[in-house]
Amino acid sequence: MHKVVFVTGNEGKFAEVRDILKTFGIEVIQDKNGYPELQEDELEPIAAYGAQYVANKLKMPAIVDDSGIFIKALNGFPGPYSRFVEDRLGNPKVLKLMEGETDRTAYFKTVIGYCEPGKEPLVFPGVVEGKIAYEERGTGGFGYDPIFEYQGITFGELGDAEKNKVSHRRRAIDSFLEWFKDKLEKS
Ligand SMILES: O=c1[nH]c(=O)c2ncn([C@@H]3O[C@H](COP(=O)(O)OP(=O)(O)OP(=O)(O)O)[C@@H](O)[C@H]3O)c2[nH]1
Ligand SMILES: [Mg+2]
After folding, report:
1. Which pLDDT score, from 0 to 100, does residue 182 have?
2. Which InterPro entries match (predicted)?
3. DSSP state of 98
4. With contact defined as beta carbons under 8 Å apart, do 26 and 50 qualify?
5. Which of the residues 4, 9, 152, 171 has an alpha carbon 20 to 30 A from that of 32?
6. Best of 49, 131, 144 to mutate for ligand 1, by most ligand atoms within 8 A of CB?
7. What is the DSSP letter of 8?
8. Domains and CATH numbers, the chain
9. Which residues line ligand 1 (CB under 6 A)?
10. Residue 122: CB partners within 8 Å, gap ≥ 6?
């Protein structure tokens, strides 16, 4: 079985990536030691730098996942600052910021960064479009899931298996696998 190290402190991300890659015969090992996260307006350079850093540190191929929620009425906020905003404000205060906003359009984005020691990093983005709900709904998932509606149902209501079929993270992993499968076939 193929093994990949995934550097993340986020158990929700880890469980999703582990479950998705398991169905493709890839075992995911969590490393919780973190990496320096650049402060950038885009997720791609953060994931690229992080993947390169961890691959060289661990001396083995590794992936990282940098994600965020981008809310149109807030000009893309919190985007790359989603972790900070989750910790400092949380969903109730994000909903307060959205009071009176009729355009609820938002998207979730994940960028998977992959790198091998001594090589250049690769990035694989995935996006899912949805809407910011008017209240938190559902207890599944993590983070912003209870306020993110996909086709009228929040990710918190959807359940892990269903979220993993349509999520930003699933789409990023699919794009990573599209590239990675050639490697698997050769090894
Ligand atoms: O509702 C959600 N559904 C998701 O599918 C999802 N994926 C990420 N997030 C949140 O967005 C921020 C990313 O920050 P982030 O990429 O730096 O991750 P993190 O700091 O939690 O872990 P690490 O991987 O960096 O160790 C964090 O607040 C995450 O909780 C999500 N929220
Ligand atoms: Mg982080």
Report:
1. 84
2. dITP/XTP_pyrophosphatase, ITPase-like_fam, RdgB/HAM1
3. T
4. no
5. 171
6. 144
7. -
8. 2-186 (3.90.950.10)
9. 8-10, 13, 37, 65-68, 82-83, 86, 108, 141-145, 148, 155, 167, 169
10. 48, 51, 113, 114, 115, 179
The tokens of 104 are what?
């609820």
Report ipTM for this prediction. Answer: 0.98
Q: What is the mean pLDDT of each run of 10 residues along the chain (187 residues)?
A: 93 97 94 97 98 97 98 98 98 98 98 98 98 97 98 97 97 96 80
Residue among 130, 129, 128 nearest 152 (CA): 130
E strands, 8-161, are 26-31, 62-71, 105-115, 122-132, 148-150, 153-154
Ligand 1, atom 30, residue with closest C-alpha: 143
CA of 68 relative to ligand 1 center, distance in Å: 6
